[in-house]
Amino acid sequence: MTAPTKGSGLTWVGRSIRRVEDPALLTGRGRFTADLPAAHRVRFVRSPVAAGRIDNITLPDGATVFTAADLAAVKPIVPALHKFGYVPVAQPVLATDVVRFVGEPIAAVVAATEPEAEDIADDVTVTISEMSAIIDARAALLDDAPHVHAQAARNVCVEGKMETPGFAAAQTTAHRRVTIEMRSRRQNATPLEARAGHAVFDPISERVTLTCATQMPHLMRTAIADLIGMPESDLRVVAPDVGGGFGQKMSLVPEYVVLVWLARKLRSSVAWTEDRRENLMASFHSRDQYIRLEGAFDADAKFVALSAEVIANVGAYSCYPTTCAVEPLMAMAELPGPYDLRAYACVARGVLTNTCPMAPYRGVSRPVITLALERLMDEAAAAFGLDPLDIRRRNLIGKFPYTSATGLVFDEGTYRQTLDMASEALDVPAFRKRQVQARTKGRYLGIGFAAFSERTGYGTPAFAARGMGVTPGWETVELTMDPSGYLELRIGASPHGQGLRTTLAQLVADELGVAPDRIKVISGDTDRTPYGWGTFASRSLVIAGGASVLAARKVHAKLKTIATRLLEAASDDIVLENGAARVAGTDRAVPIETLARAAYHQSHLFKGEIDAGLSESATYDPAGTFSNACHAAIVEVDADTGHVTIERFVIAEDAGRLVNPMIADGQVVGGVAQGIGNALLEEIVYDDSGNMLTATLADFLPPTCREIPPIELLHLETLSDATITKSKGLGEGGAIGAPAAVLNAINDALTPFGVSINEIPATPQRIRAALRQARKNPA
Amino acid sequence: MSERDEITLTINGKRHAIRVEPRRTLVDAIREDCGQTGTHIGCEHGVCGACTVLVDGAPVRSCLMFAVQAHGKEIRTVEGLAKGDELNALQRAFMENHGLQCGFCTPGFLMLITGVLEREPDITDEELIDVLSSNLCRCTGYQNIVKAARAVAGEMRQRRTA
Fold first, then answer.
1. Mean pLDDT of chain A, nearest integer
2. pLDDT at position A2, please?
3. Range of the domain at A221
4. Considering only CB atoms, which chain B residues are within 8 Å of A665?
5. Chain B closest CA to A254's CA: distance in Å?
6. Is A7 a member of any domain?
7. Which of A97, A148, A345, A550 is deepest in the core (most CB within 10 A)?
């Protein structure tokens, strides 16, 4: 439990209070989408082939099945981006003439129960003339590769290019160049609750309520109403308890569009609960990237130029709203990372293939670019005969604000300090001695570091820079103190495990001098909350939190005006604390309930000064802020089996003010576990024809607690001037840094063998293959 | 598949007389036929453990057991842990140690730990890791689940020696 900082004036912010979310979730009273009863259950018939033309669909007699022909009036999903040569590709919600990946929905079976729907789906016969499929992104760029969409030449859906002035000169005159090729295999975010939707038609109002496992309820409402061609006011979208998302639940789900259409068509209720096989096969994938970096350094190992080629395999379609450009363009914008570097050139492509579409996953491109860049730094250190820490210290940014080669403005951070903290915690000199001793016994220990920035809490300017047709960023909240003096905070953000109902209440409590249990936070219901963008991109505490503070300040001002009259005191002398307005330094006070009642029932007293009631809204659209951290790992690699054991994992991180340190630590540690899974275990594998080989959780392997070591966390709190709450986002950092720290440690451990592992996950098979190769061709 | 068997599931002491197809899984029967939705379905192939319940005291993946196999047996689910609104020691430990985020895997972990601590009250911290590795959590990174389980195991040991 962390006490509030002394003298901060904060009572609740900074304290690890228990979450208000927990009691319901601990007693089985959580309410998830799949818990709702429905008259009809839906099962989707999906494509068994990666590419082909649908010749015929034969339905069993008497079955209720809908295909693209029935949904002809529903528009296809066509996300928009206005820059970088983006090719707008269309995704029908049910496949029309062609199929483009294994798992693409072709037909919707409706039955009274799930087993019946599954039986009927098994009897639907889809005849497809198979065409040649393209699975690998680099192969898709070749001239003779088949086209996934006719209009995307060489399967390039988006291509970002940039080169800073003077780049070529900086690169060619450099003292030393180091290159690295990095391959990140495909991931699935794997929330424990897969996708689920439940749509019910109300014959009285003619409205549909779609309850679904989404991170973005308002945008789902807009997108689905647009595609179906219905007034948005006829659709209510509810995100109830949502069992994790990690980005996979922020994009538009074609199946949800079908559910709303079915509810209207049948004038009834329909539900679909995705099974794990569907989730692994047909929900969104990510991180399938190839990156080639060439770093140029001067004689003092100062980083002077970086050139990058990024190829992101974005699958068969483009996700809405971010578009499939989100991975390549984020890579381009942020590849220089936390290093002071002026010369930079990059080509970043999003390449279409006959695989499941890509969508954001915690960290988006940054786990991969951090991996590539941090491997480059270690390779460069080796080339110069420097310690990996030394080369980082020479190059990390240290003066703020810092404007990067790509135009990003870094607010104050602690890049060097966190590197030092992490390395001191692991006592590097002592480790090196132990490492040498261990090698004499045939044991291979390694240490690895990853320094990185985490761009968080960014508003519309950042998204506009990408040219997105839909430009998210701001958040609005509505705060109402009712006549009883209790508060309701209605937010457009949409938490699904982040504990926002607790942390936003802490922020508002401090502004109004009340306890957080007076404040109910309402989210995830488009009928009850203001339009907003939901929860993604490490934004909610910063942006919805900032808006909450702004709204609370407005309510505070009104309460103070009322108190001024009731206490007959000067406004400047009144403080709100402990649930009352008090004349500072006296015992004259009036309870907040009295002020609230007066705001509604005695408003004539304040006529002309303030409006009746205590409802205020506020919107916040910040430029963004950079959290930073250093992850450090000590691993042991078993050279005989290729198995990697993580012995220690240390994080030194700085996310500004921590509103609830317990929750903050939980976010970081959870991210690290996903990062370790990415580094060592998790991989979606297709065969050459586009069949998925990892369709169960016994094949795609999220880590268990056996694979996650105790994670040691060290904090700095550089209060950010870039945000209202002085906080920076931290939802993604854990996942961003961990793969690089682990892979650098593995490579350090394998130094005696002269091998480099530049592919994740670094499975035992890959490590053994590299060691076998090294034995065949000794360096 | 219209053949149905009449069975009785006793869930948290309450008897539910239901008719199910032989292929009905226990978790579907608990959720759909008995209306107890606190038990969650994460994978339906026995890996993630979200559906863990206790059957005659033993932790069971209820997605891998047929409902008819549970006929006449005592089933315990997450709904049976608290006394009214009062959380039990394990639930409190999860709350105090921040052992849950989205809460979807939580019922399975709670039942797994409950079953194990009842059967093996002297389980060591290291053995607990092995047991907890039966279930998947995607949010927490496990540290706080482990802390919560160890805290309750420790309290139980202390109470017995006191």
1. 96
2. 38
3. 33-131+195-273
4. 98
5. 21
6. no
7. A148
